[in-house]
């Protein structure tokens, strides 16, 4: 090495890794410390390679399934192998039966009729009026029963997967959907069954709704229990041996375990496990972002009109909405503006296609791997650090006995939301086989970060600064089209007052980005607007803001009433840097609250 600290071609750097193995020689005195070093070398490298080559999660097996009607509180966890975030093997060699459900709750008897379901013979096959009226009536009954705000859309909204009926149906509570092949909206018998279930729930005498939470989530938890299953590594000492040759572990002899037996702890709890580093998810997100950036740097390969006419998704959406004879033309060459669409009954002009954009997958994958190193696993020789829990499954079960009797209380098992660790080679092979490194449709950017955090408090101060909800994109976008941004207001929980949000208090009308709105609580007029940051004219958008602004001369603390707010954003944006207008749709939703001291 040169004296100034720079390397020369004749003096390369030699950097020890800190990982050492034993070097045996004749006559060497071996102690416990030496044998421990030998084992540690193999353990560290094996677990390091497993962590980086496979990732975290299930490698094979470990399926979770109901134990059947005769054991309606239990599930089977089948044998299999998983890896934890440090590369430790989680090996389950035999099927295990695990209790996941509590003792069934006793329904209210006699059951009240506060929540009224549709009358027998009700039908809404030809009109949605009967459905709307039934939902309003049921929601009003729930509000009266719990003395808390609960609206029609909380009960059922076809575009809201968090609405109560859809969540119960997805959890497998077949009582609310006797025909499992039916799709929303629910038929009258399904709503009537749901009303029966809601009436049997005993309302706690000391019930109060926590700030930033909604009654629909409480009702789901009152009907359906959720148990999270996971695996945790453990080891224990076995085969005690004495420290003196030919002695036995009797009397005053000192003995120590001569073996370390490895195993797993099957953990069952009623709340999600702490989030683990997931190399697959992180690599997928980073790889998508790399491809988006590369696509946005490419020159246009096809015209906007051509790419829209070759997009099967857009054609399918128009045909579903307007019949088999409809076609769609969209994009900058359509009726108006980027991303607009025009559905007609006449055929679209023939598309002239250019070769698809060729991307450098090797470069994108290289950039991901160059930033993927997480360092060596932390050392913990005394075993004081808690072992991480690797999720296996989410089990939904009925808190009440099922009707008809004899059905298992285990409703459904979500096996596939767990982290998976199939290894780098099959993932790379799948990527190459499916894409051939050709972007037939531009990669979709993601909206993932928003403030305030879900169920958190919005920033409301004593000045005239506006309160904002911020949604951020993972990469710059062209100006986006917002189908709708809706805000629902829930007054604070107060026995005797249950004003329900039958509809959004505010929704962004077409062609408008701001609107003045008076809140149902009688608060002052508030201007609600949408801002694309840094500005609506900036060709690259990185975030979108929902802004609650005070009227002139009014402090922010005086214009946003106390209570809970639920917002929903339907996004329809396009990647226009390629000269395309490919639709990317999604729904984001969050809940925040304004405390009493800020209203």
Write the layout of secondary structure elements.
Blueprint: H1 32-54, E1 57-61, E2 64-66, E3 74-77, E4 80-83, E5 89-92, E6 96-99, H2 129-146, H3 152-155, H4 164-171, H5 188-199, H6 215-223, E7 224-242, E8 255-269, H7 279-297, H8 304-309, H9 312-322, E9 327-330, E10 341-344, E11 357-358, H10 361-370, E12 389-398, E13 410-414, H11 424-435, E14 438-439, E15 447-451, E16 456-457, E17 467-477, E18 481-490, E19 506-507, E20 514-518, E21 525-533, E22 541-549, E23 563-573, E24 584-594
Parallel strand pairs: 16-24
Antiparallel strand pairs: 1-4, 2-3, 3-6, 4-5, 7-8, 7-12, 9-10, 11-14, 12-13, 15-17, 17-22, 18-19, 18-23, 20-21, 21-22, 23-24
Brief sketch in words of this structure:
By secondary structure, the chain is of the alpha+beta class. Among the domains are: 92 residues, no CATH class; 152 residues. The chain has 11 helices and 24 strands.
**Major β-sheet strand ordering:** 15-17-22-21-20
Ends distance:
67 Å
Helical region count? 11
Q: Structural class, judged by helices and strands?
A: alpha+beta
Radius of gyration in whole Å, from Cα? 30 Å
Helix content: 10-25%
Main beta sheet: 5 strands, antiparallel
Our estimate of the beta-strand percent is 25-35%
Q: What are the segments in which pLDDT stays under 50 over at least 5 consecutive residues?
A: 300-355, 575-582
Total number of beta strands = 24
Mean pLDDT across the residues is 74
Name the overall outline: globular
